[in-house]
Write a structure and sequence with these properties.
Two copies of one chain form a homodimer. By secondary structure, chain A is an alpha/beta fold. Chain A folds into two domains: about 1-145, translation initiation factor eif-2b, domain 1 (Four Helix Bundle (Hemerythrin (Met), subunit A)), CATH 1.20.120.420; about 155-355, Translation initiation factor eif-2b, domain 2 (Rossmann fold), CATH 3.40.50. Chain A contains eleven helices and 18 strands. Chain A has helices at about 40-50, 55-75, 80-95, 100-115, 120-150, 180-185, 205-215, 225-230, 260-265, 300, 355, and strands spanning about 1-5, 10, 15-20, 20-25, 35-40, 160, 190-195, 220, 240, 245, 250-255, 270-275, 280, 305, 315, 330-335, 340, 345-350. In chain A, the strands form five sheets. Chain A has a seven-stranded mixed beta sheet with strand order 8-7-6-9-12-17-18. A four-stranded mixed beta sheet of chain A has the order 13-10-11-16. A three-stranded antiparallel beta sheet of chain A has the order 3-4-5. In chain A, helix 5 (about 120-150) crosses helix 6 (about 180-185). The longest helix of chain A is centred in the middle third of the chain and has 30 residues, at about 120-150. At the A-B interface, helix 7, strand 8, helix 8, helix 9 and strand 14 of A face helix 7, strand 8, helix 8, helix 9 and strand 14 of B.
Chain lengths: ~350, ~350
């Protein structure tokens, strides 16, 4: 993705590995400061996923793949059985970071499977270094294809609503929901993006807005409450969101609030598209109630997080000290509200996904 | 309403007049600090409405009524024609504070009508002092009746969702949406309230939560994105909101996000009730598109307002400095999403309102 530095524009990925260090764009510091964070061992990478230094399903997947490689590279002995025990422990720890995004489990399984042909520690380390890099490259490539496949759905001067950040920052690069918007902009279609701020962590107003600023794509931020009003007024032509998990009948698990936008889109006859790569499809999951919906710390709701450079405190309480909160981080959008799913292979009706990828 | 001071509980109204000073609970300081604000002349009262020191349709109405009385009391001469010119100017200024809530126009008109029988400045001043006090008393009384009429809709241990603050703080006392919840609590029904935080100004997490803390009513705060998820999971039994204006066919203008909750409630077969007194009914307004929807300053969206005592700055920016925002403050919920309207006269279907009150 493009990142502006004064008058210069540099190219960045959200997460990458150099030597045994996993680097990532430090997302809680955006939009006020652009910094990268380097995690020196797999436990630091695990902490970065938990604390949402990196977030977004495909980005979590790639970070987890690098984490598995890091765990292998950290192993100092030569005993292959000790190594395998070490890797089993690392696998468990990495999978135990966040429960909802399928890409995490998909990536870790893929790395552990790749390692199976290895007969020694050296060989396993070498395989995992290459496999994790390949995973990240392919993940970026899939998002680029999602952009090309989704681009025809965006007409000239289309007004697109998106929720949360399913952009380059939520992936290795390009984004899922934002990839077709980027492609439409490059194509001269001049899209306009309404960004749901996406409480509680404001990935919309903080991250999606930041990405669109970098690319000079026209946009404005709205509170999550305002999308329905604008839909009813005819100011929104289509909705595109990403996904954390899509099950075999096309139900979509995504950031809390996605279900609300999907219901409102159908009520107002506005197409509702979900953009997601294969790593998001969980065909073991038949019914949506099998998916664990992460409930995060109530402080995310009770405090507001800004990290304005003029306010190092970074948070202000917006509720009485006696009040508590519920904080489900994701919701489930049943397949009947989803118009199409945009994938690296093409654009499908939700019910076609399991036939195509299953 | 009850307000806790250490171990003592005192009774307060949201707005009242002593001498020629209009006092109000200083709402932007809640929930962190309970303070009252006294406006010494009608222009200060106008500023307090504009800056949302006082907000909520019935509270704005009563404040405006006191503002009209203040304007009269401020007049120093004896020339009745000069007085009437002064009052006309004051009327215009007071009506020009906020465009959406009907109570404002209803209250100002009522005061100006009351004054018509006066033949002198003294007489007009005396009439308006009494009439504004009567307006506030009757407004409080109507809300108390809304509580009694709405209470049977709340079953034992019902889980109620509310949006924004349609509580005592949005009225002179008792509240509209919160009045039936208060009545149910006094009746031992043990309701549980889910409070939408209600971005951008967080009237839910700041004000409704504060009111429920004062009365020890069980509650939790959720982000506006989470209500749909909880409805779909069967965790919400009914929704009650207030209104800023209800037109002759029962369309409801209320805080931005109300329309979203109403659509989601119908989609999940959950009753959606609107609680409002007669002062909210605008029968001159036939189609919803006649209502002016206030668009407020984009900074309300781009910054977060907390006023945590440890952070006197009071706001943190949550968006890139290059990004703008749209900030419609209200939306329109068409009558087909409204199950019943709870009034001081009883509970009606939306289509019955104009027959009963028109």
């Amino acid at each position: 993705m493009k990142v502006k530095f004064n008058s210069e524009v540099r190219d960045y990925r959200t997460v990458w590995m150099e030597g045994s260090v996993v680097y990532m764009i430090d997302q809680p510091k955006l939009p006020h400061r652009f910094e990268t964070y380097g995690s020196k061992d797999y436990r630091e990478t695990v902490a970065a996923i938990k604390n949402m230094v990196v977030r977004g399903a495909p980005a979590i997947g790639a970070t987890a793949a690098f984490g598995v490689a890091q765990a292998a590279l950290e192993f100092k002995g030569k005993d292959f059985r000790d190594f395998l025990r070490h890797m089993e422990k690392a696998e468990k720890t990495i999978k135990n970071t966040r429960p909802t995004a399928y890409d995490l489990f998909y990536a870790v399984k893929k790395m552990m499977d790749e390692m199976r042909i290895a007969g020694s520690v050296d060989e396993a380390q070498s395989i995992l270094r290459k496999a994790s890099q390949k995973y990240a490259d392919e993940s970026a490539g899939r998002c680029r294809l999602i952009g090309l496949n989704g681009e025809p759905l965006i007409k000239d001067s289309a007004r697109v609503l998106t929720h949360c950040n399913a952009g380059a920052l939520g992936c290795v690069d390009h984004g899922t929901a934002l990839a077709p918007i980027r492609a439409a902009e490059y194509d001269g279609k001049n899209p306009f993006v309404f960004i749901d701020e996406t409480r509680p962590r404001c990935q919309g107003s903080r991250l999606t807005a930041w990405e669109l600023v970098q690319e000079d794509i026209k946009h404005c931020i709205i509170v999550d409450n305002a999308a329905g009003y604008l839909m009813r007024k005819g100011e929104i032509d289509l909705v595109i969101v990403g996904a954390d998990r899509i099950n075999s009948n096309g139900d979509v698990v995504n950031k809390i609030g996605t279900y609300e936008k999907a219901v409102l889109a159908r009520e107002n006859s506005i197409p509702f598209y979900v953009a997601a790569p294969e790593s998001t499809f969980d065909f073991h999951c038949k019914t949506v109630d099998d998916v664990e919906i992460e409930e995060r710390d109530e402080d995310e709701v009770l405090y507001m997080w800004g990290l304005d450079p003029s306010n190092e405190l970074g948070r202000v309480r917006i509720a009485p000290k006696e009040s508590g909160a519920r904080n489900p981080a994701f919701d489930i959008t049943p397949t009947e509200y989803v118009s199409k799913i945009i994938t690296e292979e093409g654009v499908y009706k939700p019910e076609e996904i399991s036939k195509r990828f299953g």
